[in-house]
User: Fold these one by one.
Assistant:
Number 1:
Amino acid sequence: MTLVDITVGDHALIARLEEALAPRTCAAFRAMMPYQDQLIHVRWSGEGCWIPMGPKAFDLPWESHTCYPRPGQFIFYPGGLSETEILLAYGEVRFSSRFGQLPGNHFLTVVEGMEHLTDLGHATLWRGAQPIRFALRHVQAESAAAVAGA
């Protein structure tokens, strides 16, 4: 199991890469590590925040794709109809763009720090863009099993 340390503003999260569900998406994301950007509040989708990544499209298949990520789930939209982006749901989300509803690949799930998601979302909505940083965490098998059961 691969864990990712995520820092957003003043909040620290730990997430699990969903390598069994979205292997190619996870491999593409791993290749970007460590990754830093700005997290902003979504425009159309509901209670979520996103990282706009511009016009660079990734050649990825649909893997564990959804238009309705659950709180704590990150989805990756590889580009095409709309710009490439990563979205984090902190509440109810219907992933969409100016072109309508879109599916994104669920590739990362928060396993520690879920209690911070609402505050993080509200800070992004009312105070603006928040810096976000993703870094791979290497853990021993027994520690990974403990986090997986959390």
Number 2:
Amino acid sequence: MNSRPVAALFVRADSIYKTMPGVDCYDIERDALTWPGGCPVVAHPPCRGWGKLFYFAKPAPGELDLGPWAAQQVRTYGGVLEHPKDSKLWEAAGLPRPGQVDAWGGWTLPISQHWWGHRAEKLTWLYIVGCTPADMPLIPLHLGRATHVIAQSRARRKDGVRLRKGMEGWRPEVTRAEREATPPPLAEWLVEVARRCIVPVRQAA
């Protein structure tokens, strides 16, 4: 069993990562910027300033800087960065879009968190450095429609009409905690990905 230490950066105070052996967690109180480096990471930098509704967000001073900083930790030490699909962080930090590879050997894997048990589809991009597609842990395939949605504002019919309660196809929203939290099976899978990540010495220097 792979037991390499992993750092989980920008996690919730009640994060599932805190229950995992060998995972060093940094939440808002501990401050990920104090992490000294030295092992692969699973990074969940704040996303509200980078998502599709960024114009409604009010990031705290310095919050937007955390995304590019997290990407640099992944490039330096290996691991995985998680953000919503089409996050604007990809352009800001020069991250490769799906199907591309960057100068660090990093690549982007599109996933649905529903595959790991999330009640909503929650489309997500993972930026990975140090582990090739062939070396990844198995990805579960979950067929069927999610029972919930992340936000009603995104739920629309094929003709563009916004779905409302009582209309065919309408589904309830998940809770705020569910929007923010990582499903335990996905968290375990991300830690396993990070443990498989190895960057060349020239990158880690």
Number 3:
Amino acid sequence: MSDEEQQNDEGFMPRELTVRIDEVVWSNPKASSSPPTVGATMLRHAGGWTVHDGERTPWVDPDRPMLQPGHSYLEAVFKETRGPDGTEIPPSWKGLGEGSKLPYDDGVIGNGETEGRAVAPAKYRTIEDEPGPATLEEQLAGKSATALATALDAAAPGTSSP
């Protein structure tokens, strides 16, 4: 929490985790850098606690995994080498967007932990369901990372996924 939040005993305390890369599922063959190394670790933020009068209350991102030990996840990442102002920064792997992390227990997309609770692929599809065409995430719930890699290989810039 910020100094001011600590003084007021009120604010938000982010949760910071170190995650290990167990497998690289897919990498763009035209990428300018190599994919992350299996066994390497990355720093991630997921949820945290709201603090009011010194009492901590867990907070999780709606419709997003909390990243709990014992669960597996898929994450779409990119290598960031420049800061928001364009200056060069030490390279680090960043999530591709707000929905870049997917539950992946037992090698099944959409199976595992979301919002701190266990979900099955069928339930995960309904959590993620937004009006409009099904997203790749929704289409692949219940399938393997191999199906994801196949879909990414088949995708062309500026087109919808298969």
